[in-house]
Amino acid sequence: MMMRRFAPKGGPGPDQPAKLSRRGFLGAGAGALVLSVALPMGNTRAQAGKIVPGTRVSAFLEIRPDNKVLFRSPFIEGGQGIFTAMAQIVGEELDVDPAQFIVECAPPGPDYLLTMGARFTGGSMSVRMSYDTLRRLGAAARLMLIQAAAQRLGVPAASLSTKPGQVIHASSGRTLDYGAIAAAAAKLPVPSDAPLRSNADFRWIGKPIARLDVLEKSTGQARYSIDLSVKGMLHAAVQHAPRLGLEPASLTNEADVRAMPGVHSVHRLPGAVAVLANSWWRARRAVETLAVTWAEPAGAVVMPADFSSQAHRSKLTSMVGDGVAFETEGDVAAGLRGAARVVEATYEAPHLAHGQLEPPSALARFNKDGTLDLWLPNQAPEMFQTAAAKVAGLAPEKVFIHSPMLGGFFGRHFLYASANPFPQAILLSKAVGRPVKLIWSREEEFLRDALRPTGIARFRAGLDDAGLPVALSAVAVGEGAIGRWYGRQPDKVDSSAVEGIAGKPYAISHRRIGQIHVDDPAVIGFWRSVGHSMNDFFYETFFDEMADAGGQDPLALRRRLLARSPRHLTLLDAVVDLSGGWRRGPFKAADGSRRARGVAMASPFGSEAAAIAEVSLRSGEVVVHDIWVAIDPGRIVNPAIVEAQINSAVALGLSTTLLEEVVYANGEPQARNFDGYPILPPDRMPRVHVRIIESGAAMGGIGEPGLPAVPPAVTNAVSVLAGRRIRSLPLSKAGLT
Amino acid sequence: MELIINGHRKQVEIEPDTPLLWVLRDELGMTGTKYGCGLAQCGACTVLVDGQVTRSCVTPVEAVVGAAVTTIEAVSDDPVGRRVVEAWVKHQVPQCGYCQSGQVMTATALLKQSEKPSEEEIAAAMVNLCRCGTYNAIAAAVRDVAGVKS
Ligand code: FES
Ligand code: FES
What we know:
A: alpha+beta, Aldehyde Oxidoreductase, domain 4, B: DNA polymerase, domain 1, five-stranded mixed beta sheet
């Protein structure tokens, strides 16, 4: 029902400032959503001043004559099911079956700034940030259709109602398809007072609706960035400097490479060399044949030649002091002094790669009218538009960003200097005056991925005579991803460095959570569940260590310290119930194996989660049999998608628990493909059991919250079987027997 | 070089050691078969060569001259392939979907070779990686087509 057709290549977009504080976006502090974020004003706000995001029906919806509904989503689909959730939310109020929706990612534009005045797909924010707005949008569009039908039929609007896809005049039995009146409806003003459907009448919200893209993804029809082509394009492949910051000095066999089949040209780029050819394989083979000497430019910021994961971990461990305080309660020094017993331990976690299965790519095309089309995987179209415009030397509104479906993301496709291929594609296309599609080989991707930071945490807990914790001091050492990309204040703690150690619900009278900042020499980024991905592992495994030292059962101790938190108690009881009752073990299973169970909790991204894992050991290898997860996201839109996301988060969490570790030596990552960086294979996937609790609390996230409790639940169980505490991941290097 | 892709004869002019994957994707414009690792690690590039599961990223195109290559684009032309796709939809298997062409082709090959594979045969065949962790849904869909109760 569009009045003005949206510019097909993506309309003018806001000049989105790239330096945008994400503090709070990802759920700071006590897991609560911090809304008082310092957002840049800039001209995003100025432009958005005329347009209230999420209100212009024509920017979002196009009802076609065949009654199909095109919805332009502010959020990108990458497996988390957001396109389907959008169709459910809008369809519910618009009165259109979600199955009738075609959903695509919206181009840059002020209408779509629904994530706290900005726009990105991340922080498990999409549904909870847009739910109310999009319901109102759907309801407004329905009212416009009713008004258009009233004019067409010459009856009062009040005499009309709707059923899916149709306006009905009950007294005369006449009906009008939405598709037949959409054009007329689009000319009407958008009402601001359209009534919303009552929750009790929901037909699609809250139901396990089938995802819209499953058939196309099961038959190879779904198109990702890597699959696209445009007329006259050249294929590009790059060879990056083995160590970040080095520049190509000389190419000794350039003439030979130029003569290779299909080769168009050889190029030097910042930190890389490239070959353009008439197929990607030819470009790749040629670029890898190039013999390049790399030089360290004076004064450049480079990865140190002696950087190794091991040495960096030692440095983190050697940092002394309690750091800058982030969360305090009571008097932790006094609490520790007065304790009958003090327990201390240091935990560590490695760098991780995203390993999304679609390697990054970018397709750039300069047009005769001075504009640039750019197709690329991204989680934040406006930010990429601004950055691409700078590289291309164009005004942002001359850059059209296209955001195809993502072949996995997990935080990979934010704007990270040196980790995105699009600047190279733009430079190459500009250099040769033809469209260029660049694909990074898996090897180049492992060389330039923005990693989950590495970190350590030092804990000291004071126990009283009864073995109950009365004081807890925790110091996280390392660097957070938010501070890296959105600015760090030296006297303040980056919430992403401590979330999951801070914000825990347990009643311990004296607490202090601090952080010591140490620059991470690697390029770090956001990785599914961000700081929670390691910090809940640190905290929840130390929790069991505290319980053991005090002679407490770890589940009983959690219940006791949550006695005044009914939401957490309900959750914990739910996961215990789901698992058939608590038994820590070791116990003998029916198949004769010796097993144990571990429990852990997490409060990530506005949701609450609890997990129990059952494990055994087989010739030193951890076998995870079952993982039970209870999650309370307050309210949900699609239980089937929630369950799928929990399965996915469990798999990724377990993969990091068992196998994953990026190892640097001499400033270079040692693994360049999945042979050197194994990820969870199918035969190590446990059964996953999910219980969703809709407590009615404020809506929380779904995509990430299932992950953080998994590593500690598994490790707690393994520690029972091993008879010793395991304080480092992955478990493959724990020397288990 | 003449190839037989999904029952059609195709002429390609290409270095004979080019991986089949890139012939499909770049020369023939068939992008349903995916590039994930290029190193026979992930299975995203799985096609069938004379019915055998084959990782096309490490298969030189010259090795399949004269053989029948089947890709995901033709999966629904095959009665078993159709049942596999139906099961994939019923069990809502894909998440990001990027690995799923390879998963569907692998399952189709298995179920064409053995109508009722055992739990062990299923596990031995379904070894492709999925970073989204759809493994349980994949197993449920394959068992469903195979009529295996879990
Ligand atoms: S792309 Fe062939 S196995 Fe990964
Ligand atoms: S569905 Fe995403 S990799 Fe398998």
